[in-house]
Protein backbone atom coordinates (compact mmCIF):
# COMPACT_ATOMS: atom_id res chain seq x y z
CA UNK A 1 0.00 0.00 0.00
CA UNK A 2 2.67 2.39 1.04
CA UNK A 3 4.89 1.47 -1.84
CA UNK A 4 2.07 2.08 -4.27
CA UNK A 5 1.48 5.57 -2.89
CA UNK A 6 5.11 6.33 -3.30
CA UNK A 7 4.95 5.19 -6.89
CA UNK A 8 1.97 7.42 -7.55
CA UNK A 9 3.72 10.31 -5.91
CA UNK A 10 6.79 9.79 -8.06
CA UNK A 11 4.60 9.56 -11.12
CA UNK A 12 2.86 12.86 -10.40
CA UNK A 13 6.20 14.47 -9.67
CA UNK A 14 7.50 13.26 -13.02
CA UNK A 15 4.32 14.55 -14.64
CA UNK A 16 4.98 17.97 -13.11
CA UNK A 17 8.54 18.02 -14.42
CA UNK A 18 7.27 16.93 -17.79
CA UNK A 19 4.64 19.67 -17.93
CA UNK A 20 6.90 22.43 -16.68
CA UNK A 21 9.64 21.25 -19.02
CA UNK A 22 7.42 21.16 -22.05
CA UNK A 23 4.91 23.93 -21.62
CA UNK A 24 6.19 26.76 -19.48
CA UNK A 25 9.72 27.47 -20.76
CA UNK A 26 8.53 27.59 -24.33
CA UNK A 27 6.56 30.72 -23.68
CA UNK A 28 9.08 32.17 -21.24
CA UNK A 29 12.41 31.78 -22.98
CA UNK A 30 14.06 31.13 -26.30
CA UNK A 31 17.67 30.96 -27.47
CA UNK A 32 18.32 32.38 -30.92
CA UNK A 33 21.10 31.16 -33.18
CA UNK A 34 22.76 34.25 -34.65
CA UNK A 35 24.16 34.10 -38.20
CA UNK A 36 26.28 36.51 -40.19
CA UNK A 37 25.79 37.46 -43.85
CA UNK A 38 27.82 34.42 -44.99
CA UNK A 39 25.55 32.06 -43.05
CA UNK A 40 28.14 31.33 -40.36
CA UNK A 41 26.86 30.91 -36.83
CA UNK A 42 28.47 33.69 -34.78
CA UNK A 43 26.74 33.28 -31.43
CA UNK A 44 23.47 33.24 -29.55
CA UNK A 45 20.89 35.56 -28.00
CA UNK A 46 19.01 34.19 -25.02
CA UNK A 47 15.55 35.68 -24.52
CA UNK A 48 13.69 35.54 -21.21
CA UNK A 49 10.26 36.81 -20.27
CA UNK A 50 10.54 39.11 -17.21
CA UNK A 51 8.18 41.44 -15.35
CA UNK A 52 9.75 44.40 -17.13
CA UNK A 53 9.70 43.01 -20.67
CA UNK A 54 11.90 40.54 -22.51
CA UNK A 55 15.56 40.36 -21.50
CA UNK A 56 18.11 39.56 -24.21
CA UNK A 57 21.51 38.11 -23.39
CA UNK A 58 23.60 38.63 -26.52
CA UNK A 59 26.77 36.60 -26.96
CA UNK A 60 28.19 37.18 -30.42
CA UNK A 61 31.68 37.30 -31.91
CA UNK A 62 33.17 38.33 -35.23
CA UNK A 63 32.07 41.97 -35.13
CA UNK A 64 34.30 44.96 -35.66
CA UNK A 65 35.41 46.47 -32.32
CA UNK A 66 33.21 49.31 -31.03
CA UNK A 67 29.50 50.13 -30.95
CA UNK A 68 26.84 48.48 -33.07
CA UNK A 69 23.12 49.07 -33.47
CA UNK A 70 20.82 46.22 -32.47
CA UNK A 71 17.05 46.05 -33.04
CA UNK A 72 14.11 43.70 -33.19
CA UNK A 73 12.85 43.70 -36.78
CA UNK A 74 9.29 42.93 -37.80
CA UNK A 75 9.61 39.63 -39.71
CA UNK A 76 11.02 36.31 -38.53
CA UNK A 77 13.18 35.81 -41.61
CA UNK A 78 16.98 35.99 -41.84
CA UNK A 79 17.95 35.71 -45.48
CA UNK A 80 21.51 36.79 -46.19
CA UNK A 81 23.49 38.51 -47.29
CA UNK A 82 21.55 41.75 -46.64
CA UNK A 83 18.80 40.42 -44.31
CA UNK A 84 16.25 42.76 -45.93
CA UNK A 85 13.84 39.84 -45.39
CA UNK A 86 13.59 40.93 -41.75
CA UNK A 87 11.71 44.10 -42.75
CA UNK A 88 11.58 47.31 -40.74
CA UNK A 89 11.84 47.68 -36.97
CA UNK A 90 9.20 45.94 -34.84
CA UNK A 91 6.80 48.84 -34.29
CA UNK A 92 3.29 47.72 -33.30
CA UNK A 93 2.41 51.18 -31.94
CA UNK A 94 3.28 53.11 -35.11
CA UNK A 95 5.82 55.37 -33.38
CA UNK A 96 8.94 57.09 -34.70
CA UNK A 97 12.39 55.51 -34.50
CA UNK A 98 14.85 56.27 -31.75
CA UNK A 99 15.40 56.01 -28.01
CA UNK A 100 16.01 59.79 -27.94
CA UNK A 101 13.02 60.58 -30.17
CA UNK A 102 10.06 62.29 -28.44
CA UNK A 103 7.54 60.48 -30.67
CA UNK A 104 9.38 57.20 -30.24
CA UNK A 105 10.71 54.71 -29.79
CA UNK A 106 9.78 51.57 -31.71
CA UNK A 107 9.23 48.60 -29.41
CA UNK A 108 12.19 46.98 -31.21
CA UNK A 109 14.62 49.85 -30.56
CA UNK A 110 17.50 49.01 -28.22
CA UNK A 111 20.66 50.71 -26.95
CA UNK A 112 23.83 50.08 -28.97
CA UNK A 113 26.01 47.16 -27.95
CA UNK A 114 29.81 47.40 -27.73
CA UNK A 115 32.17 44.79 -29.15
CA UNK A 116 35.56 44.47 -27.44
CA UNK A 117 38.95 44.62 -29.18
CA UNK A 118 38.47 41.02 -30.36
CA UNK A 119 35.05 41.80 -31.81
CA UNK A 120 33.14 39.90 -29.13
CA UNK A 121 30.00 41.08 -27.30
CA UNK A 122 28.39 39.78 -24.15
CA UNK A 123 25.62 42.11 -23.02
CA UNK A 124 22.20 41.95 -21.49
CA UNK A 125 19.47 44.25 -22.82
CA UNK A 126 15.76 44.66 -22.06
CA UNK A 127 13.03 45.00 -24.68
CA UNK A 128 10.73 46.94 -22.36
CA UNK A 129 7.37 46.76 -24.10
CA UNK A 130 7.69 43.28 -25.58
CA UNK A 131 6.49 39.82 -24.60
CA UNK A 132 7.18 36.26 -25.74
CA UNK A 133 3.57 35.38 -24.93
CA UNK A 134 0.49 36.28 -26.91
CA UNK A 135 -0.59 39.88 -27.44
CA UNK A 136 -0.09 42.98 -29.53
CA UNK A 137 3.59 43.29 -28.63
CA UNK A 138 4.36 39.59 -28.97
CA UNK A 139 7.73 38.86 -30.57
CA UNK A 140 6.66 35.33 -31.44
CA UNK A 141 3.21 35.87 -33.03
CA UNK A 142 2.58 35.86 -36.80
CA UNK A 143 5.69 33.86 -37.78
CA UNK A 144 7.86 35.74 -35.32
CA UNK A 145 10.34 38.60 -35.52
CA UNK A 146 14.13 38.80 -35.76
CA UNK A 147 17.06 40.25 -33.87
CA UNK A 148 19.43 42.21 -36.11
CA UNK A 149 22.91 43.61 -35.40
CA UNK A 150 24.17 46.39 -37.69
CA UNK A 151 27.59 47.38 -38.89
CA UNK A 152 27.12 50.96 -37.71
CA UNK A 153 25.81 52.83 -34.67
CA UNK A 154 22.18 53.81 -34.06
CA UNK A 155 22.12 57.58 -33.53
CA UNK A 156 18.82 57.33 -31.63
CA UNK A 157 17.15 60.03 -33.73
CA UNK A 158 17.29 59.60 -37.53
CA UNK A 159 14.30 58.14 -39.39
CA UNK A 160 13.48 55.42 -40.14
CA UNK A 161 16.24 53.38 -38.48
CA UNK A 162 18.86 55.55 -36.77
CA UNK A 163 21.29 55.56 -39.71
CA UNK A 164 22.60 52.23 -38.44
CA UNK A 165 24.30 50.92 -41.58
CA UNK A 166 24.24 47.41 -43.02
CA UNK A 167 22.54 44.48 -41.33
CA UNK A 168 25.37 42.06 -40.53
CA UNK A 169 24.01 39.52 -38.03
CA UNK A 170 20.51 38.03 -37.78
CA UNK A 171 18.63 35.58 -35.56
CA UNK A 172 15.00 34.48 -35.83
CA UNK A 173 12.66 34.84 -32.83
CA UNK A 174 10.24 32.07 -33.65
CA UNK A 175 8.66 31.01 -30.39
CA UNK A 176 9.89 27.54 -31.30
CA UNK A 177 11.44 25.91 -28.25
CA UNK A 178 13.58 23.57 -30.33
CA UNK A 179 16.13 26.28 -30.91
CA UNK A 180 16.42 26.72 -27.15
CA UNK A 181 17.09 23.06 -26.50
CA UNK A 182 19.74 22.79 -29.17
CA UNK A 183 21.63 25.83 -27.98
CA UNK A 184 24.83 24.01 -27.09
CA UNK A 185 25.14 21.95 -30.24
CA UNK A 186 27.21 23.68 -32.91
CA UNK A 187 25.20 23.93 -36.07
CA UNK A 188 26.40 23.59 -39.61
CA UNK A 189 25.35 26.70 -41.52
CA UNK A 190 24.87 24.73 -44.74
CA UNK A 191 22.48 22.44 -42.91
CA UNK A 192 20.49 25.49 -41.88
CA UNK A 193 20.42 26.77 -45.44
CA UNK A 194 19.06 23.45 -46.62
CA UNK A 195 16.41 23.59 -43.97
CA UNK A 196 15.41 27.09 -45.01
CA UNK A 197 15.25 26.01 -48.65
CA UNK A 198 13.05 23.10 -47.75
CA UNK A 199 10.73 25.31 -45.77
CA UNK A 200 10.44 27.69 -48.69
CA UNK A 201 9.72 24.90 -51.11
CA UNK A 202 7.24 23.35 -48.73
CU1 LIG B 1 17.97 47.11 -37.19
ZN1 LIG C 1 13.49 51.73 -34.70
Automatic annotation (TrEMBL):
<dbReference type="GO" id="GO:0005507">
    <property type="term" value="F:copper ion binding"/>
</dbReference>
<keyword id="KW-0479">Metal-binding</keyword>
<dbReference type="InterPro" id="IPR024134">
    <property type="entry name" value="SOD_Cu/Zn_/chaperone"/>
</dbReference>
<comment type="function">
    <text>Destroys radicals which are normally produced within the cells and which are toxic to biological systems. May play a role in favoring mycobacterial survival in phagocytes.</text>
</comment>
<feature type="domain" description="Superoxide dismutase copper/zinc binding">
    <location>
        <begin position="43"/>
        <end position="173"/>
    </location>
</feature>
<keyword id="KW-0560">Oxidoreductase</keyword>
<feature type="signal peptide">
    <location>
        <begin position="1"/>
        <end position="25"/>
    </location>
</feature>
<dbReference type="InterPro" id="IPR036423">
    <property type="entry name" value="SOD-like_Cu/Zn_dom_sf"/>
</dbReference>
<keyword id="KW-0862">Zinc</keyword>
<feature type="region of interest" description="Disordered">
    <location>
        <begin position="154"/>
        <end position="202"/>
    </location>
</feature>
<keyword id="KW-0732">Signal</keyword>
<dbReference type="InterPro" id="IPR018152">
    <property type="entry name" value="SOD_Cu/Zn_BS"/>
</dbReference>
<comment type="similarity">
    <text>Belongs to the Cu-Zn superoxide dismutase family.</text>
</comment>
<keyword id="KW-0186">Copper</keyword>
<feature type="compositionally biased region" description="Basic and acidic residues">
    <location>
        <begin position="192"/>
        <end position="202"/>
    </location>
</feature>
<dbReference type="Pfam" id="PF00080">
    <property type="entry name" value="Sod_Cu"/>
</dbReference>
<dbReference type="GO" id="GO:0004784">
    <property type="term" value="F:superoxide dismutase activity"/>
</dbReference>
<protein>
    <recommendedName>
        <fullName>Superoxide dismutase [Cu-Zn]</fullName>
        <ecNumber>1.15.1.1</ecNumber>
    </recommendedName>
</protein>
<dbReference type="InterPro" id="IPR001424">
    <property type="entry name" value="SOD_Cu_Zn_dom"/>
</dbReference>
Amino acid sequence: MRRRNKKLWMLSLMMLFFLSGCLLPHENSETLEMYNADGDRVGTARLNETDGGVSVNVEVEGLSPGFHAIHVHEYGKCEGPDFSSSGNHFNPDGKDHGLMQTDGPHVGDLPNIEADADGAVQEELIINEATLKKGKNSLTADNGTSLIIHDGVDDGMSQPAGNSGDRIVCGVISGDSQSGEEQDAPTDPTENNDKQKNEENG
